């Protein structure tokens, strides 16, 4: 049997299909080179049609066709049945002339060159081209939630996909406004000098014309040092000096801190850690530490510094609370109203004794618990 197969292979390659005129019967078939494209998982049908018009009955009996896969030198069918034990393979031989090879549930390894031979050395060659929809290669692609990144650093997003043909890659960036922008068509893109405001969400889409396209989202978490704003009541304070009318019966001094990851927030009054009727809470992105002075007197004058620190850094912001009546004792009422907005460094030197408060540090752990 093996000898017979070897023989036909040798004949087929040496005679290159010349028709021997001594032979009374030659089956004819289309010997064109054909490419069949099939998507992975589907069924492939490889046609082999042999014309038997001139055959006599006694010649048909000895007529044989075999199918081979050349890449792995494997014989797939012989006469009218599959022989390699692969249950996906069958021979469709409903008509005498038809010897079609069917392969179900195509996988990528089925790609290659197939040949349908007759026992007199004619053959037809087919290329089975297997198309593979894109699939993200996890080992080479950035994970969906990469560990947090510090401001100022660079970060490279990688996206690789397997597929046949090789998938095209698009990397999209999502802005807050839900605007989408293609930022790269390469497998890797580096975002330089990451800032707190760097777009947080990216998405990679791989496509090769054989659906479904696949995608992966990346959510970046950015570590940044505390950013501090001070408010009195609900007004954001931009100047260092704040003049307070001692008739104000309540002052809400608020330190709003934005930072990631969470860290400590505390107040210092005139170089001492300070704690007076405080209140600390979280908003969506921020930590707020609020000091409430229920009745403002001279004693509460001075420099109030809000200090915030996390593992990226420490920042602080100070304001100087000045009792309006103290600073204006030597001036007239009209002068007061102008200096109120023009006072600069000179007002910082105003020192007034204040009652020492019990000192307690407000520490906010990353879980948000007071320690
Ligand atoms: C050769 O390829 C065919 C079709 O892909 C497969 O069915 C067969 O198992 C392979 N044979 C070997 C020896 O790998
Ligand atoms: C099969 O073999 C042919 C010729 O030997 C080669 O061109 C082709 O790349 C091979 N295909 C695969 C899938 O190995
Ligand atoms: C970011 O990339 C730029 C350009 O390659 C390089 O000069 C810089 O040192 C990198 N920054 C960091 C923090 O690695
Ligand atoms: C990085 O960005 C910050 C602002 O976010 C900017 O001040 C700084 O100059 C930038 N550094 C480089 C090397 O571009
Ligand atoms: C802050 O608000 C309280 C009442 O909510 C008011 O009595 C007080 O005068 C305000 N303080 C300042 C400095 O505006």
Automatic annotation (TrEMBL):
Q: Does the keyword Repeat apply?
A: yes
The source's superkingdom equals: Eukaryota
The record's Gene Ontology cellular component field reads:
neuron projection
Please list which residues make up the signal peptide: 1-16
Q: Which SUPFAM superfamilies match?
A: Immunoglobulin (SSF48726)
Provide this UniProt record's keywords sorted from A to Z. Answer: Disulfide bond, Immunoglobulin domain, Repeat, Signal
Organism name: Rotaria magnacalcarata
The name of this protein is Ig-like domain-containing protein
Boundaries of every Ig-like domain copy: 27-127, 134-221, 226-320
**Endoplasmic reticulum in keyword set:** no
Pfam assignment, any one = Ig_2
Which sequence ranges are marked TM in the entry?
Answer: none
């Amino acid at each position: 049997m093996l000898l017979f197969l070897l023989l036909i292979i040798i004949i087929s390659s040496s005679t290159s299909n010349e028709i021997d005129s001594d032979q009374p019967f030659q089956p004819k078939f289309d010997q064109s080179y054909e490419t069949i494209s099939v998507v992975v998982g589907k069924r492939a049908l490889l046609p082999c049609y042999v014309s038997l018009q001139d055959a006599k009955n006694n010649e048909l009996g000895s007529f044989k066709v075999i199918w081979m896969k050349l890449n792995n030198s494997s014989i797939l069918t012989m006469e009218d049945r599959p022989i390699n034990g692969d249950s996906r393979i069958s021979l469709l031989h409903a008509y005498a002339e038809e010897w079609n090879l069917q392969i179900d549930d195509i996988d990528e390894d089925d790609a290659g060159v197939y040949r349908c031979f007759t026992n007199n050395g004619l053959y037809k060659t087919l290329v089975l081209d297997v198309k593979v929809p894109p699939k993200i290669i996890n080992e080479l692609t950035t994970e969906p939630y990469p560990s947090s990144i510090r401001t100022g650093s660079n970060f490279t997003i990688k996206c690789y996909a397997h597929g046949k043909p090789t998938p095209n890659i698009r990397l999209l960036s999502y802005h807050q406004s839900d605007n989408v922008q293609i930022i790269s068509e390469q497998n890797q893109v580096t975002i330089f000098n990451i800032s707190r405001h760097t777009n947080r969400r990216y998405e990679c889409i791989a496509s090769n014309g054989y659906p479904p396209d696949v995608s992966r989202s990346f959510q970046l978490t950015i570590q940044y040092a505390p950013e501090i704003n001070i408010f009195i009541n609900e007004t954001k304070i931009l100047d260092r000096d704040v003049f307070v009318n001692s008739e104000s019966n309540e002052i809400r001094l608020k330190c709003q801190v934005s930072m990631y990851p969470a860290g400590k927030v505390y107040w210092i009054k005139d170089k001492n850690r300070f704690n007076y009727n405080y209140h600390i809470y979280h908003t969506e992105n921020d930590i707020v530490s609020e000091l409430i002075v229920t009745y403002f007197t001279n004693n509460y004058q001075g420099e109030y510094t809000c200090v915030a620190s996390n593992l990226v850094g420490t920042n602080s912001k100070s304001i100087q609370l000045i009792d309006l009546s103290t600073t204006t004792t030597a001036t007239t009422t009209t002068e007061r109203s102008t200096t109120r907005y023009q006072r600069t460094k000179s007002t910082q030197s105003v020192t007034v004794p204040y009652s020492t408060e019990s000192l307690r540090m407000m520490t906010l752990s990353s879980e948000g618990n007071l320690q």
